[in-house]
Design a protein that fits this description.
Order of helices and strands of chain A: EHEEHEEHEEHHEHE
Strand order of the largest sheet of chain A: 8-1-9
Strand order of the largest sheet of chain B: 5-4-15-14-13-6-7
Oligomer: heterodimer
Mean pLDDT of chain B: 95
Strand content of chain A: 25-35%
Number of strands of chain B: 27
Low-confidence stretches of chain A: none
Number of helices of chain A: 6
Distance between the termini of chain A: 35 Å
Strand content of chain B: 15-25%
Helix content of chain A: 10-25%
């Protein structure tokens, strides 16, 4: 069984938002809601500035608070390690939204269920990468199977220093952030 | 459509490996649809959410476009689409589209129209055009356009005997640069894309080029690749742009002093003997003259002029030279800044020449080698223009795309002859030309104005007759010659039938020819298949398999056309008089201009005013995508970037709405302040294209503020006619 993860090379992100729109279309995300976003975080004072381009989405955590808090079992882990929502079971109580430390869930107002990034589960079944990854103009988003030592994500994480968001909350995220890969020899 | 396991296996068996997450290779649109089964269709086509012409593949289910993806075979998209490309469906299904022909029913500008049939509208247009041509001569009919529809109406005007055809892409954008590079290298730096070999560059200089915000798909892919591979970026920009945030050297230059920096760099390159001696000897003329002309531009002087630290100026150029020739100074695109812009572009070209980047890995690749047979489908030659066109104004080097404001001036003053009718196709002139007062005055002085467009923009809603074009997802265009590293041919074809009563521009132009009694210039045949048939004939003439293009890959390569680098048997050809790179331009000298660029200071803002600079958003193209649902959602209104210290000094908070007032007392709509460290203290910045004054654009209308409204002043570049538009100063009015 695969164990899916995404590696985000922040050096390659140019903030073009192609991922954001691809996701909206692919997943019929309602107006004003997003399953992924790109933050441009600038620090310093003129003219000494640094920037972090940070793509954020559901971290598909190993120890997901949304799963443990969900009263109906709608939010659950699948065998491939991803966190998914069973829409039929979701009652829209918003417990998962408040428990998520990454603020990446929304309520689909039309249907009343909670929603968020699914790693484009339907595309994975077709053998395709998630829509955001497929269209990432900078090639910043890299997707694959951590259980396959030959997958690109496994190779990168073996070779390159990486971090996760809010490691301290202990959720075990599966979105890994790196800077510059591969480095020029 | 549900994707069954059975279908997947069928498709997986067809693809090479079929491994999960090998990412299903796109081998053929038809094969993919067959594998998925059901009522799904994949249509390879070309995007037109901007002008980059990426290859796209439209997924159509039950007659509806549900997804657009990048065509992996197409070199401009390489399997990816940007935000705008992804959002093309939003344009197709936008309720605000023009739906049927309309005829003005009231005074111009009040927006009252009555619905008309195509026959009535086209008959009226033809009658008016004929009457004007009879009374004033065909040259009294002018056209302005942008993008694909231009070709079809250019055909109409030329057939009538008018050559008064102009595109804002020249004088309001890249024409200046193209002329400067033609004067230097005898070639433009690339038309559909700049020939920058960024994926192999070690150092990239971006001077007023905002990659990341300027979303030219394949170029940004290469830029990201270069950054990731450790290429050093030198970014010259008064604003800390996305590209600046990726740079090793951000040079926050004083606006208007770029030529000072470039000339000092040229001086350093020459005086420190860092240039490519062999290359300069072999391929260039005029080195000694350049050496002499730039001697006065010392780093000390440049530091003072540009307000950059001298050390930074020197270190950046030494770093550039260290890796030459695998480096590039990007030629840039939108070039109409200060009215002396040809010389800045010349300085960029000269610097590239001295570093030997033209034809070198990581520099500028050589144009692909491919000859396309000429194809005019048996149309007769155009009649000679009855009078010389006015589209070059008094600018000796104005190019073939024409100078829009020269057309506008002639329309207003009637000199040397009257211009009484405009056809405007696919360009929102009120927002693309500087000084809207003059554009409005010109339109008001017209006897007849016809607009061909997709949306009821502010310009369209001033027309006498409005002809609704269908979107790129509903029509044939092309075939397109694509010239990147290799030459190739791409197709645009409809994913769905045109909605409402909209029509393809080729059909509108062709029917207009017939109504004008110019049938011999119309497309052969009468049906909606006529253009597709013509495309087949064109493909045949070019030796390209039309079936392959239309059903399978959407793009075909011209074999053996890729010869990017200089080798012994692949020598560059320079189309200049000397057949060499002309560092010193006798052509310019002959017309009384500086043969080597010299520095001219520009006017500085008065106290308490800021220079207005403008740029782009990665999710919008000019003013034409603001109404598109997902793009509007992402970027609804623009902000004015104001240096934090200045904001504090003026008592303005981040996020507060203000109004800007320019030197002519013109005020814009209210606009939100972005108080930021990312911009110098002497200028403010906003993204171009917002602040529509078009009530029928339900989302875009009044969203943000219109920079073009504040650009009431412009300075024409005397060499090319490019309109310098960064010469306006604004003060901030706190009470919005």
């Amino acid at each position: 069984m695969p164990r899916y993860a995404m590696v985000i090379d922040q050096s390659r992100c140019i903030g073009c938002m192609a991922c954001v729109v691809a996701c909206k279309r692919e997943n019929d995300v309602p107006p004003e809601n997003y399953r992924t976003r790109v933050l441009e975080i600038v620090q310093g004072t003129y003219p000494t500035l640094t920037t972090e381009m940070r793509s954020e989405l559901c971290n598909h955590c190993d120890n997901a608070p949304c799963v443990s808090i969900c009263p109906t079992g709608a939010s659950h882990h699948e065998e491939d390690g991803t966190v998914q929502i069973d829409r039929k079971k979701c009652v829209g109580c918003k417990a998962c939204i408040t428990s998520c430390p990454y603020n990446v869930r929304y309520i689909n107002e039309e249907h009343g269920y909670a929603d968020k990034c699914s790693f484009c589960q339907h595309r994975l079944r077709e053998g395709k990468k998630p829509a955001c990854v497929a269209t990432c103009v900078g090639g910043s988003r890299i997707f694959g199977d951590l259980d396959d030592p030959e997958s690109e994500v496994s190779k990168i994480l073996r070779r390159v220093g990486h971090r996760v968001l809010k490691k301290e909350v202990g959720t075990g995220p599966n979105i890994y952030y790196i800077n510059q890969y591969p480095k020029r020899a | 459509m549900a994707f069954s396991r059975r279908n997947f296996l069928k498709y997986a068996a067809m693809s090479a490996g079929g491994a999960v997450l090998a990412d299903t290779p796109f081998i053929s649109a038809e094969a993919r649809a067959k594998a998925e089964g059901g009522n799904v269709k994949y249509v390879p086509t070309s995007c037109e959410m901007c002008f980059w012409k990426c290859g796209a593949v439209a997924k159509v289910v039950d007659g509806k476009v549900v997804k657009l993806e990048g065509n992996p075979f197409h070199p401009q998209s390489r399997g990816k689409l940007c935000a705008r490309g992804q959002a093309g469906i939003g344009q197709l299904y936008d309720e605000d589209r023009l739906k049927h022909p309309m005829i003005l029913d009231g005074p111009r500008g009040e927006g009252k129209y009555r619905k008309a049939s195509w026959d009535e509208a086209l008959t009226l247009v033809a009658e008016k055009m004929k009457a004007i041509a009879e009374k004033h001569g065909p040259e009294a009919i002018a056209m302005m356009s942008h993008g694909s529809p231009g070709d079809y109406f250019t055909n109409v005007l030329k057939a009538m005997g008018s050559r008064n055809i102009a595109f804002p892409s020249f004088a309001q954008c890249k024409g200046i640069r193209d002329v400067a590079w033609e004067l230097t290298f005898g070639h433009k730096p690339g038309s559909s894309c700049e020939r920058v070999d960024m994926e192999n560059s070690r150092v990239i200089v971006l001077l007023g080029t905002h990659l990341g915000e300027n979303m030219h798909n394949s170029q940004n892919q290469e830029f990201a690749e270069a950054v990731s591979r450790g290429a050093k970026i030198i970014c010259v920009d008064p604003r800390y742009s996305t590209a600046a945030s990726k740079s090793a050297f951000w040079l926050p230059i004083k606006p208007g002093t770029d030529t000072a920096l470039l000339l000092a760099w040229i001086n350093i390159v020459i005086s420190e003997e860092l240039y490519d001696k062999e290359y300069v000897e072999k391929y260039t003329v005029g080195f000694d003259e350049v050496k002499e002309a730039v001697a006065e531009y010392t780093p000390e002087w440049a530091a003072q002029e540009t307000e950059l630290p001298m050390r930074q100026i020197v270190e950046a150029v030494r770093e550039l030279c260290r890796y030459a020739p695998n480096v590039v100074v990007h030629p840039g695109r939108h070039y109409s800044w200060y009215g002396n812009d040809t010389q800045r572009a010349r300085a960029v070209a000269i610097l590239n020449a001295l570093l030997g980047t033209w034809g070198r890995k990581g520099g500028m690749w050589l144009p692909p080698k491919a000859k396309f047979a000429s194809f005019n489908d048996g149309n007769p030659a155009y009649p000679e223009a009855s009078k010389p066109p006015v589209i070059k104004g008094n600018f000796p080097f104005a190019g073939g795309e024409g100078v829009t404001q020269a057309l506008r001036d002639t329309t207003i003053n009637g000199k040397p002859y009257p211009i009484k009718a405009w056809l405007v196709a696919g360009t929102n002139l009120m927002k693309s030309l500087p000084d809207q007062r003059l554009t409005r005055e010109a339109i008001d002085s017209l006897d007849f104005f016809v607009a061909i467009d997709l949306f009821p923009t502010e310009t369209v809603m001033l027309a006498d007759v409005i002809l609704p074009e269908c979107t790129y997802l509903e029509r044939h265009d092309g075939l397109f010659k694509i010239k990147t590293r290799e030459a190739g041919v791409a197709i645009r074809q409809p994913a769905v039938e045109p909605m409402y009563e909209t029509k393809p521009a080729w059909w509108i132009g062709s029917e207009l020819c017939k109504k004008l009694g110019l049938k011999e210039y119309a497309v052969k045949g009468d049906g909606m298949d006529a253009w597709e048939d013509r495309m087949r004939r064109q493909a045949e003439a070019w030796g390209v398999d039309f079936e392959q293009l239309s059903k399978h890959t959407g793009y075909v390569t011209i074999p053996d056309s890729e010869k990017p680098y200089i080798t012994e048997d692949n020598q560059p050809v320079f189309g200049t008089f000397s057949e060499k790179i002309e560092l010193y331009s006798e052509e310019l000298e002959g017309e009384g201009f500086d043969p080597v660029p010299q520095y001219e200071p520009v006017e500085q803002p008065p106290k308490n005013m800021f220079r207005l600079i403008y740029g782009r958003s990665p999710v919008h193209t000019f003013s034409r995508t603001i109404n598109t649902q997902w793009l509007w959602e992402l970027h609804k209104e623009n902000e004015v970037w104001l240096n934090k210290k200045e904001a504090e000094r003026l008592g303005i908070k981040n996020g507060q709405y203000v109004v800007l007032e320019n030197q002519d007392g013109i005020r814009c709509n209210r606009i939100k302040v972005k108080a930021t460290e990312r911009i110098r203290q002497d200028c403010v910045y906003m993204v171009h294209g917002f602040g529509h004054n078009a009530p029928r654009l339900s989302r875009a209308n009044k969203s943000g503020a219109d920079d073009q409204q504040l650009i009431s002043k412009y300075i024409e570049d005397p060499i090319t006619g490019g309109t310098g538009m960064r010469v306006n100063f604004v003060k901030i009015i706190k009470e919005a």
